Each structure stands twice: as C-alpha cells, then as structure tokens.
Amino acid sequence: MNNVVTLPRSNVQTVAIELRGVWYRVNGRNILREVDLTVERGTTTAIMGLSGSGKTTTLRLMMGLVRPTQGRVFVNGQDITGLNENDLNQIRKRMGLVFQYGALFDSLTVWENVAFGLLRERWLSHAEIDRIVKEKLEAVGLGQPGVERLLPAELSGGMKKRVSLARALAFNPDIILYDEPTTGLDPITTNVVNDLIVRMRDRFNVTSVVVSHDVESMFRIADRIVMIHEGKVIIVGTPDEIRNTTDPIVRQFIHGDTEGPITV
Amino acid sequence: MRSLLEAIGSSALSFYRFNVELILLVCESIGFILTRNVNLRQTLFQMAEIGVNSLPIVMLTVGFSGMVLAFYTSAEGMRLGATQYVGGLVALTMFRELGPVITAVVVAARAGSAMAAELGSMVVTEQVDALKAMATSPVEYLVVPRVLASLVMMPLLGLFGDVVGVAGGYFVAVQVGVPSSSYIESVRRLATLQDLFLGLTKMVPFALIVSLVSCHQGLATRGGAQGVGRMTTSAVVLSVVMIYAADFLLSLVLPLP
Hints:
The complex is a heterodimer of chains A (264) and B (257). In chain A, helix 4 (110-119) packs across helix 5. The longest helix of chain A has 18 residues, at 187-204. Chain A has two domains: 1-94 and 175-264, P-loop containing nucleotide triphosphate hydrolases (Rossmann fold, 3-Layer(aba) Sandwich), CATH 3.40.50.300; 103-172, no CATH class. Chain A is an alpha/beta fold and 264 residues long. In chain A, strand 4 and strand 5 form a beta hairpin. Chain A is built from ten helices and ten strands. Chain B has one domain.
C-alpha cells in the first residue's frame, strides 16, 4: 500500500467514511458533482434523493466498487481511491453491503449465501459457521427451520433482502452500507429492518449508511440525513433540522409534493 | 465521411480494448492458479457442466460428421477402386481437423454461451458486485474454475469425439460396401497416435479461447436482459471465429507426424 494518504489519527477515531471533492462521470454525464461528505463513526447516516440522483453511486464509491473520476474517498482513515483490489479487499472485509434487490447468489442456498464469506476463512470450523449463520438469520427474522435450505428463487422479495442483510452481518462489520433496505417490504418487516439498523448502532457501535426513498424510516433511524440532488449534496442535518428546513427542494421531497422546484 | 472515420475509430478502439482486457484476464487467472487460489468445488462443478453435459452433443455432432465424411469418401473410393484408403482418410481427417474443431465449436455454442449468459446475469443482478463486496475476486471465483475445467475436459471431449467419428464412419462405410477389415486396416496403416495427439494438442488453445472469451464477454455485460443476450451472442461468435483462426495458425505451426 504505497503512496496512500491517511487521515490524521484524531479524525480516524471519529470519522468512518469521508468523501472529499468527489466527482463521478459516466459517458460524459456527471453523476456526482464535487460531493463532500463525512460519516461519523458509530452513527447512522441516511442519504436521500430522487431516483438517479447519485445515491447508489455514493454507496458504491464508499465500497470501492467504482472509483471517483476526481476527488478522494477515505474509509477508516485510509484513502481507498487508488488502492488495488487486494488492498481494497482488506478494507471490504470490515464492511458489509446490503443490495437493493438482494444480489444473492442464485445457485447457492440461503445457508451458503450467508456463509459465503465465512467459508473462505479456513480458521472457522463448520459448526462455528453454522452457529453464526443461524444467529444472523434469526437477527433478520428468518430463524424458522428450513429457511436455510431454500434457494433464492424460492424466496419472496422481502426475504431476499433480509438474507442479503444477514449475509452482510456475517462478519460483524464496523460499517454497513444499505441500498434501499426497506423498499418493497411490508410495514412490519420494514420495522424489523429499521430496528435492526438501530440495534447494530446501539449495541455494536456499527456505522451505517442507508440510501433510501423511505422518508419515514429515515427520520426514525438516522442520526444525520443527507440529501443529494442532481449529483450534489444540498443539505446535511439531523432529522429535526431536515424536518424544519425551509429549503424548498428538501421540503418538496420529504412531503412528496408534486408542485415545487423538483419536476419529474 | 466523418461518421465513417468515427465508426472505424470506434471499432479499432473496441478491438484494442477487447484484446487488452483479455490479456489482463489471462494474466490474472494465471496469477490465481500459480498462487493455488483455486476453488476446487466450483472447478469440479464446471467440469461436469462443460465436460459431462456436453458429451452427448459432441458425440452426436462429431459422429454425424464422421458418417458424412465416410459416406462421400466411400462412394469415391468404390468408384476409383480405392476402398483401402477410406478408413485412413476418415481417421486422419477426424483426428487432425474435424474432431477438435467441431468439438470446440459445439462446446463454444453450448458451454461458452452458458458461461457468458450466467456471468452476464450475475453482473446485471449485482451478484458480481456482491462478490467484490465480500472481498472475493470474480476472476478467482468465476473465471479460474471455468478455465481449468475447460482445459481438463475439452481434450477429453475431443478424444471421445474422435473415437465416435471414426466409429460412425465405419458404420456408414460398411453399409456403403467398404469391407470391414479394409476400413480397420486402413485406419491402422494411415492414422497414428501422433495424429491423435496433434488434434488433442489443438484442444488446449481452443479450451482457453472458449472459456476466456466467454467469461470476458459475460463480465463485460452492461444493461439488462438485452445486454446479456448481446454478450452471449458475441461470446459464441468471437469464440468460433477465434477457434478457426487459431486452427489455421496451429496447422502451420504444429509439425505433421
């Protein structure tokens, strides 16, 4: 890991993820424009915005799945912008990503999906892996016997999302990134997932970044809310600050008004 | 004029990019193999998928080709009174050329298309990103097992194809009127084990072409179902063209027995 920029020690203790002056361009189109964003350690940050505003790209940048066209991304104090895949993998082992549609491996059973990363760690016994898988499935409300033997094609959309969440939790990561964790879930399962995100922060000091359209859920779980609009961060604040803002774009978004500065 | 130049430039750029990416994929795969980062379970599964499941179609296609070849050769042999050459000609053609090439083309169509479609679907459903997010290289987990399985199974398929092709030829030649002993004796006299090995040697580069091109096209998929379909087609087309081009070059390079 040569020529790698690291954050000062004091910042590393308080900052889990930092995006500094990040631009992301695809086919001549700016997806993100000079985004500066800091995610405090042990907090839940929600990123909201219209579809196509660059929210998911922000998550992918944090995970190192795409590289910024310009600017720098720091995770746990380390600049990941220019890291090779091997070095990135060391960073990713301390992170989890919950995909919007689950992204489960469809040739593997639920058990194998959740155990996927664990099976690659040769120091873990099969019994230990089995215990972790069952514990994580139970944590997401899928503790019923027999679920672990199902294939992803046999699961509902909500179950897929929860298995994806269990898979992300398997390594007890410091940072979990959620891409639309509650979209498409019934109200009860939505609350199960929201409670889990809150519990991960309160019990294990996990840093969470949640990308969502679900305004109610965000107000419930987030310590800080960020809104991205047309590739730029337009507001950062606590749920109360966001709720009481006078910014017309933010107000229109959180109230879902059809009239206003945002035209769809 | 300008759009024509743009089209030529864009095609040249795509061709250059394809070659560079393919070379990088080869290097990365070799790196994982040399450092023994090979997923044995996936490799065995792919061996069954590429080898065992392709066996019936390989035997059918190469078998029929041997039968057609024997039919035409026998007819001419009977007319010219040269039936003592029929078996040898069929065997030589099967061993050196038809067996390996048809086997490779059939595997490209059957297993190569499946590889491209499967990997392409994994890309569009974010499963490849999920692998990366779990600190697993898609090349290590998806490409290396397919390359190794192809390298092991395709020469074996070629061998089965050769045997079935010559046997199919025997069946037809005898029906047409070539004496059974003459066919067998001709095979023994004209075709050698070296001819068989020459053909099977070709299967190694063919296996690399099918597996690497198909995996590359699969991983390069963008967009949804349409992208998967497009890359699956291009995987098969590119593999088949490269198999024939490699066959020509190998015929010039490999010494005749």
